[in-house]
Amino acid sequence: MALIIKIILFPNLFSFDVYKNYEFESMKPGNVRMKFLEVPQIVWGLNNQKIAFARACLTARMLNRSLLMPSLSASLFYKEIDKLQPISFDKLKHSRFFKCPVSSLVMKCLFLIVMALIIKIILFPNLFSFDVSKNYEFESMKPGNVRMKFLEVPQIVWGLNNQKIAFARACLTARMLNRSLLMPSLSASLFYKEIDKLQPISFDKVFNFEKFNSLCNGFVHLSRYSDVRNQSDVFELQKGSGRRWTLERDLDQLKEFSNQDYDVYETIKIVGKNPFLWHDHWSVSDYAKVFECLVLVDEISKEANEVVSKIREVGAVANELLEDNTILSGWKEGMHPVDKKRLGVTKIYDKHPYLIQAAIDYEVCLRADVFVGNSYSTFSSLLVLERTQMMIKTGVSRACGINVRWPSYAYNLEGESGGPRLWMTNYSDSSLQAISYGSNAVSC
């Protein structure tokens, strides 16, 4: 009789409706020669692997053999089997619950649990719905929790406001996974295709790290790499890409990794495309909460103050690079369009890389009494979002048709009086799509 029986089909594909209460003769005391069953590497998602493992155990039981400890799959690939990252079964902390073979009573209970789980999924799928906008509690952030968990993301790239969106999306992803986001690198230079030419800059060289965590306390959290205790305790999560990687598949992946079974890893590292290109699962109001926590460091804020002071001395400003000169006409007397050179602020800008120059421009426009922008611009769209938030805090929920503080206008869209159309962000939108580049959604 063979000492080992080797099965070559994935355990995930076994049928498991034929098991009976077999006695383990080979396991009984006094039996000198134990017999074994070997199965292939167990693949796919965590719970699929748990079901596959249980199925392999039950198969071994039926054959009156001990299951040789199988390899699980640390990475999540559905079709590229050759890319699977194996991990030993005994590397998981919860493995003590699945030692096989075990007593007949325990095996019965395990089998019933697996069956009940499958029946619930089939008959009551709504019980497993996942609302990403829920107010999740950050167990890993609570005082007294000695082991914080982290999320690491790729370098954040492209323009200032694309980087702000990408950063917020990374924060909200970390929130969904109940983890703190490791402070990412931003990009000081502006390159869209030559990624190798990007000049990284630390987040805390632009935005105030401590104020961010203070303002966003209880919502999202940012950590430094020095907070990580074990740099090798990392699980790599490959983000999908291409047309087949749908919004639904992306959300399913996040659900999978929000499972407590992945708490065994101190850090989850997302690899692949940068966060700006990730699917969007969050509402405008969620993004606004993160943006509100982004406060410039004191040095940059003081320089923005200096530019604002220069502007107020002359009444108005328009950048000399504007191509549409028509927006410079039609203003009240006493308002004069000028450029940065005439204002005498070029020295402030020239000593900084692109990202900080753009951050100063953004801060200046945010503080303007009136802002006029282009609805197709991400820069303008995020400015209007934050200015809308400022109005909401004063009790104004809708600015259309009334005189309000901090009004914004879209000069590329004609309003009722023939001038620029009044512009206010709709906070009820379920994603940023309505204010993304190329949108004419201005609410009014």
From TrEMBL:
Q: Give any GO molecular function from the UniProt entry.
A: glycosyltransferase activity
The protein's matches in CDD domains, at most eight in alphabetical order, are given as: O-FucT_like
InterPro entries xrefs: AtOFT1-like
Protein name as catalogued: GDP-fucose protein O-fucosyltransferase
Keywords, in A-Z order: Glycosyltransferase, Membrane, Signal, Transferase, Transmembrane, Transmembrane helix
Q: GO BP, one example?
A: pollen-pistil interaction
Record keyword Signal present = yes
Q: Is the keyword Cell membrane in the record?
A: no
Q: Where are the transmembrane segments?
A: 105-128
Secretion signal: which residues? 1-15
Source organism's superkingdom?
A: Eukaryota
